Amino acid sequence: MIALSEILETIAHAPIQKRAMTNHGVLNEAYAYAKPSSFSRGMRIDLNGLTILLISGTASIDENGVSVHIGDFRAQMKRTLDNITGLLESEGCTWHDIVRTSCYLRDIDRDYDAFNEERTAFFKAQGLDPLPASTGIQAHLCRPELLIEIEAIAMFRTEKTAK
């Protein structure tokens, strides 16, 4: 068995590799934003066998960068979750690796019940246990037609650890 001090020593001196992530088959970069765009769809950080994904705010945007399901909160939420799923898959992980979400709703009073129903059904279908930590916030979103945007953090091992 490896001592905790050895693990901490290894992590403390391990190189940190990072790169932008995307999945153009699911959603594209924000074409409507001024160029150059000042963010990545997400950031992948690799640290000595531990990978952390920081997924930027993701919404109901299609592969052409167009907002879809205008006016339909539930359909926008489903597309948003599908987009995040595609980003996770492009990096070799799943919703089981999500540790935190931040959920931004344009009108939390109107849409929270639908949001919670959709999220609960989706997480149940994924078989998530434990559930990710999460925060729900009312916010003005980057496009007026968007009703929901979700950020996510995933963590997973890319190398086997000694037992």
TrEMBL record:
Key word Disulfide bond present: no
Cited Pfam families: Ribonuc_L-PSP
Molecular function as annotated in GO: deaminase activity
InterPro entries given in the database record: RutC-like_sf, YjgF/YER057c/UK114
Presence of the UniProt keyword Nucleus in the record: no
One GO cellular component term: cytosol
Key words of the record: Hydrolase
Origin: domain of life: Bacteria
Record-stated family: Belongs to the RutC family.
Protein name: Rid family hydrolase
Species per Swiss-Prot/TrEMBL record: Telmatobacter sp. DSM 110680
